[in-house]
């Protein structure tokens, strides 16, 4: 089924780095820049918490790989890959994207105006913990980053794009103060950050600790 | 039980309770509960922030020069405005002044955000509260073309063929089952009043707005180096200017400036030929739906923004007005001093925080963010599944900010009422022009539609300001000044041992302030009072209700199980949230559960 090699590929990480495992997608893209030498045809982008702002980037891409924390209803830390029509269809049905605008809305909008990339791959990870403002990735999710990147490399190779180990210089990643090391190093204690949670609004946190 | 609030509302919490429970996590989850009487009229409203937002806590101990990058991630929409507020607060604390070009560029970044946000809000969030895209499929393209030419003779996209094409595209989209964007509508609700042709025209402009918004954000990419989440800098802007150069990577050259100029022109065309005429056309059908005014006729607050000159925030130098109106007296606009500990205070009697004595307010510089979650004795449900909150006790994660004790509305309508009351020339002309065209009295401003109209007028005004600052930038560069940053006090060793500062902006959805205390080169305390804190505020110790709560009062719902009217009014504030609605029967059992965008 594989046809022509895509000319421009967007590798996008979405999510909020301030919300524990919500930062998975952004951290994947950050790690990819540190560990892989991507050819010029591949653009890395920290999509952060944004919705419609991503539209111009989707429009420019022939193929899209998106990393995200996704609620598949599976064991926390499980990695799932989905392709093409399954990406928006599943997103719409299960409301699995955890963002405000909803990435499925962005994709639907892109479709409406004919700006949707021809090929799409979602590499999603089931989160352990979301209700931890100021927290970072939980180990089970952080451990999946290398596997998620391998998956992305395989996907790129199946599209005829070779990826070597190395580094990619890129301006479109998080500010250095928010890079994972700096962010985790400077964070306050669990108690100070109110990560103890409460029953009404942090039921997931209760469960995760139980 | 019936109670009278000091700010003039009669609350009655008997009758059916309807719960609107939004689910976003960017600026904070929010939920709204209302009681409706037998006639479907809202008699009580309870607005709740359902989520702990501890940004203040996670900034403690960080480098103040980095605070902008964290605050930029608070919200999924107004990223840059938090960053701008943050760098202003830090500059204020450290006594750093910025150069002329940095002021022009920051203003253009901020104005681009205003214009982008207002257009996206109207067409992509709010329009579906008034416009029925499904009904648009029934429109006659020829009659739509005639309507378009009447509504806006200068808009070139108006042929019957154009509308037929759009209608076909829409049909295909709807038939493919990808109704994602238009799902969750109550498309047969009698609250929708437009004829199919107006629905088709507005839906078509929804698509045109999508194309335009992609252009506007390029201004952020050009001046901010990247987008989403552009870069900011304490002391100026992080972009060099090199108009002659072609080589310097990232520097602003003439080619990029020309692109900015062409985007500004497109925005001016769109707001004049599409956005404003649409507000007039759509608004014309809803002239009798003048609910939702809430606090706007009584108490409005704006900090002001868009300084003409760098480092000068005196009210007469701000293009977006500053001031406070209280007790409905438009003849007196008070000045606002965000440093005065007696003016802005936050109360927590009905919020899930604790400090001091009951009824005590704290100025944000002395703000404390200590959580205390407890539910009132009359709440219904369980702790993990609350069906009805008890608003007589603590019921929100949002603090209650007050200006000299008054609950205030902030946002485009507040800015426009203050500007109008102050006799701000541009604003006065715009408001009088619009009211004249629509044959409406000034009092029509104090409504949900007034909020929507003020946003459109402001978008148009911001486009003109955008052009002004572009010209100013070019003139200054031509005069040989290419400075964009002042790094004299970049190094922490040049800073005082202890300092405090405040940054203010007018975010698209209202007055935004960050208050910072810096000690030994690190953040000691950081408090944000965001627009949704003002508008979504819970009651205070005196029992005054907040702007969201007030705006829903006395609204008549056509069908209480389909809360179109609640959404219209809440959406008119442009809150950063998506909603999930549960409709409860009087005994608290859900009748239906509807997800609402």
From TrEMBL, chain A:
GO-annotated biological processes: protein processing
Keyword terms of this UniProt record: Aspartyl protease, Hydrolase, Metal-binding, Nickel, Protease
UniProt key word Protease: yes
InterPro entries: Pept_A31_hyd_express, Pept_HybD-like_dom_sf, Peptidase_A31
Binding site for Ni(2+): 22, 68, 99
One of the record's GO molecular function terms: metal ion binding
Cytoplasm listed as a keyword: no
Family label: Belongs to the peptidase A31 family.
Function recorded in the entry: Not known. Could be involved in the processing of hydrogenase.
Name of this protein: Hydrogenase expression/formation protein HupD
Annotated source species: Rhodobacter maris
TrEMBL record, chain B:
Enzyme class: oxidoreductase
EC numbers on record: 1.12.99.6
Record-level GO cellular component terms: plasma membrane
Cell compartment(s), UniProt: Cell membrane
Recorded superkingdom: Bacteria
Binding site for Fe cation: 78, 579
Function: This enzyme recycles the H(2) produced by nitrogenase to increase the production of ATP and to protect nitrogenase against inhibition or damage by O(2) under carbon- or phosphate-limited conditions.
Protein name: Uptake hydrogenase large subunit
Species whose genome carries this gene: Rhodobacter maris
